[in-house]
Amino acid sequence: MAGMNDHPRFLRFALRPLAALLLVGAPLGASSPPARPLSSADIVAAAPADAWVAVPPEDLLVVDLEGGRQVVIALAPGFAPVHVANIRRLARSSWFAGITVNRVQDNYVVQWGDATEKKPLPEGIVASPPAEYARALKELGFRAMPYRDAYAERVGHAGGWPVASDGTLAWLPHCYGMVGVGRNLAPDTGTGAELYAVIGHGPRHLDRNIALVGRVLSGMEALSALPRGTEALGFYKEGTPRPAIVAAHIAADMPAAERPAFELMRADSRSFADWLTARANRKDDFFIRPAGALDICNALPPVRATLRK
Amino acid sequence: MAGMNDHPRFLRFALRPLAALLLVGAPLGASSPPARPLSSADIVAAAPADAWVAVPPEDLLVVDLEGGRQVVIALAPGFAPVHVANIRRLARSSWFAGITVNRVQDNYVVQWGDATEKKPLPEGIVASPPAEYARALKELGFRAMPYRDAYAERVGHAGGWPVASDGTLAWLPHCYGMVGVGRNLAPDTGTGAELYAVIGHGPRHLDRNIALVGRVLSGMEALSALPRGTEALGFYKEGTPRPAIVAAHIAADMPAAERPAFELMRADSRSFADWLTARANRKDDFFIRPAGALDICNALPPVRATLRK
What positions does the domain PPIase cyclophilin-type occupy (chains A, B) (predicted)? Predict the structure, then answer.
């Protein structure tokens, strides 16, 4: 994933650090020679197969934008089951085909939907889903990070997801690349026909005010580099060409040869614990002062594309 | 500023909330009728002249990109005086003219400099500036925010700047739109000839590892919407056209009629205190659950363009 292990260094200076000073992942008291110091990228590369969990094809929304760009979104039925069911149904009814990106607000969101607001929703869509803004923490397999968060009492991970919590309830945080459901005023919660992706510093004040339904796993730049809208809230001006969504499918419905496949690193794996520690304590020839901390939005679980199957 | 008061709502639903439930800026115990509830946007609009501080023209770097786009950066001589002096000298020697954007890494940075690495620096440039990564807190006029931060013991503001601190030292945080100095390995600190702007979730692990020298005040979208580089670290592929910087000036040197002018809201103003409170406690017809908190990177002081003078 972009931005994970990198820093602004001089152009063309892209050597890997050879002598990171912090040992990560080396077993304590091991009598074998010291393990090669591991960066967070090393840890991802070395993670064993059981550190990864495949995103079920039923949970992958594959969005084709005009110009041949593809965005793949992992859906989160564990957090927003009714909204996700709606989104699957919209995809399976080809409803998303022909809608457009209508809003690109810098440092905030890209939002897509039916600009005419007249396209009838397919049969079976739950018109007013429940407010799936939080769920019970206790069945979630939550692993807390030992770092502060500005917004929540606790932050950490469950499965392949970032999670914020008050100790009782748990919710997905509004981080870069997270996908949510545009809605009107409360108590309306949106159907899922209008979606947005976060393209700026995490607008965490939206947490528990809107249903988050997923995370962009690939193709983020097809959204984040779109021209910003010039009107209020970043909407495109009337008459401006809007980037069109050509098609959107659930991966499970696609022919095997065309089906993208991704894995997320499991929050309960040793590799993930090591990865968090390495991310929070970067120290190498470049990093002088390790942060000793990590923001949840800088700790979205590693993703890898796997063979289409 | 984009993204300050907005939320993802249905397309074309852009009514201003009429009945925000949280009173902001209403004097306690006032006997006059309750003040009209103020949103953070209202507070900015109503802020008196003395709540604003003009950015000195000597501290404004005006960067013209090809295609007629302009980016205006407020420099921070209070935090990185030697680096800022270098940048002024580079601008005044027309050194930046003709360099290019070489790196655009999604959710991280846009970086520009001399792709040939052969352009000689002008006379008088300090080749190895001191590591201006932090300064003493005590003379800064620091106003702490009452909210947690993942990375620093305290966060708040001074003048028109966001500030992080350990109680003794103070530094600028790596937030969206902040500008820093590309460097090689420590103890090198970079001259200021290669700069980057943050275009993603604040990479705060860079704090105190690199010199921050400013903040983009306008034209951010000319950087953040650039095509992402396809090579390692987001560098553009060799042979790909790179967005050129046509010119860069210090505003003080520009003809009065062409000179951009900006003001920042003062951290020690009543308006700013009200603005922070309103930002941390959004509640209106849309917001169901106020966050009760605010990340420093979601609290960059309001900016306004003023008449050119």
Answer: 70-252
